[in-house]
Amino acid sequence: MTQDSLRSDRGATLPIYIWLTGILLFVAFAFFAFAQAASARNGAQSAADAAALAAAQEARDELVEGLGLSIGEGDGWLDWLSGDAFTGQGVEEAAAALAAENDSTVTGLAPDEVNGFPGYRAEIRTNYTVGDSIIPGTESKHASAKATAVIKPLCSADASADPEKAVEFECDGGESFEIDPDDFVLDDLPEASVLFSVHLAD
C-alpha cells in the first residue's frame, strides 16, 4: 500500500470518528438530562410523601388529644377512636413545613379516604428546577408530585361496651388497655402510635 493511499484512508476515517464522537456526546448529554429529570421527580415524590404524612400525623395528634379531653365528658368519647373525628386544624402548617424541608411548596392539600380510612392528599411542586440540559425548557421546569397518607385505627372495643363504664380495648399487635371514665388521667392513654397508624396509601 502506497503512502498516498494511507493518507487517503486516514482522510476518509476522520469524518467517521468525528461523527461517532458527536453521537456519543449527544447520547451522554441525553442520559444526563434524563437523570436530572428522574432526580427531580424523586425529590418531588419524597416531598409529597413527607407533606402527606405530616398532615396525617397532625390529624392523629388531634384525635389523641380529643380522645383524652372527651373521656368523662359524656358517652361520645369512643367516637374519637374511629379515626374520623378530627377537624384538621394545623395540618396545612405541618404539611407546608415538611415540604419546605424538602425544598418544595404545597400546591394542594385536601382530606381524602382510602379503603375506608381517612387521611390527606398532598400535592407539591419543587422550588428548584430540573436544570440546564440539551432538552429545551428544563432550566425552568419544576417537578410536581402527589401523595396520600391515611390514619388507621388500631384499637377497638366490644360493640356492647358501655362508654360510661370501664372499657377494655384490644389493639393490633396484641396490646390491650382499659379506660375507666370515672377514674381516668391522661397518662392512662397509650402512645399515639398504639392507637393509630399513619402510612402512605398504596
**How far is the N terminus from the C terminus?**
70 Å
Biggest sheet strand order reads 1-2-3-7
Number of helical segments with 4 or more residues = 3
Low-confidence stretches: none
Q: What is the N-to-C order of secondary-structure elements (H for helix, E for strand)? A: HHEEEEEEHE
Choose one word for the global shape.
elongated
Tally the structural domains.
Answer: 1
Radius of gyration: 29 Å
Word description of this protein:
With 202 residues, this protein is an alpha+beta fold. Helices cover 41% and strands 26% of the residues. Helix 1 runs antiparallel to helix 2.
Give the tags:
elongated; three-stranded antiparallel sheet; 202 residues; four-stranded antiparallel sheet; alpha+beta
Question: Topology, pairings included?
Answer:
Layout: H1 3-70, H2 91-101, E1 104-114, E2 117-129, E3 142-153, E4 155-157, E5 167-171, E6 176-179, H3 192-195, E7 196-200
Antiparallel strand pairs: 1-2, 2-3, 3-7, 4-5, 5-6
Helix pairs in contact: 1-2
Question: What would you say about this model in short?
Answer:
By secondary structure, the chain is α+β, with helices and mostly antiparallel strands. 41% of the residues lie in helices and 26% in strands. A hairpin with a 4-residue loop joins strand 5 (167-171) and strand 6 (176-179).
